């Protein structure tokens, strides 16, 4: 690809005269350099293409199409749709295993069988090493050993990838519970056992896991797909999603800030004043961010709040937090996001962390994206618009 073009080419690309081109050099920031041994100059082609874009014309040569195609999830103002089916409606009847099979385009009984994945011999020692770290970091440390202990993980056929996905979900549930073996029990039942195991709590967890399974192309999904395109197993690609979890710009990375806000609300006799004080002092409201195209709150959060209210509507924390949510909506037009509601649910039902809900559900979507991207081939990265120091003509190949 040409890096520089001469004045005549540049003028032709822009559809202007040479005189107009020379005015563009200073007014529009077109970079150029002198051709050694002559009085002529060459012009940086990326700058020419950028001006063409601003004029509504297509650059030449044609830019690579950077839109990522997927058949998995459509995000609408009413919530996500998994392969054309409303995630919120699916949560009424489906389990996470059902939802994973739908996203992975395979029969549930073909991959979620009774066979348990082999535990790595180092597992007990690994639990000790990672005793005081987050669940995400624990998964990052342990899952590569699980992969190595299970040679079938390297079967990259469609069915093989799906079987590995099922093993991965079960291993994440086992890591949550600190168990040495996986279980074929439904994932929501396994999770509910960590906080008492009542049927109504298990059903709430089932619903949350289903609507958390996928949400299109967030940062985690891009990371997972980029790694999957290299031909690794789902164990490795899903680690990319866990790796970005603590990021300050990532929804999961706000967990600590959300936790502090919930602590304040729990300790206050006037939860509305907590919201008012934060706004008066210019502080942020963590957990009140939700993605496009939601304009009146995240439908997933709204549904989960309704579900939680049905079974724990009289819980003191739920009562206080709902008062704060109502105040934030009425006075500030702010609505809680899915992450905030996940954290609230975990506290009200007695789970130690939101990491027990959202990431477990999201693993199903990350595996789906891993499979789709591996089968599609390499990720096609966007063309970069270089803005640094330009090379001299004599240094160009």
From TrEMBL:
EC numbers, comma separated: 2.3.3.16
Keyword vocabulary terms for this entry: Transferase
Transferase as UniProt keyword: yes
Alphabetical list of Gene3D superfamilies matching this protein: Citrate Synthase, domain 1, Cytochrome P450-Terp, domain 2
Taxonomic path: Bacteria, Pseudomonadati, Pseudomonadota, Alphaproteobacteria, Sphingomonadales
UniProt pathway: Carbohydrate metabolism; tricarboxylic acid cycle; isocitrate from oxaloacetate: step 1/2
Protein name: citrate synthase (unknown stereospecificity)
Enzyme class of the recorded protein, top EC level: transferase
Transmembrane intervals: none
Pfam families xrefs: Citrate_synt (PF00285)
Membership in a protein family: Belongs to the citrate synthase family.
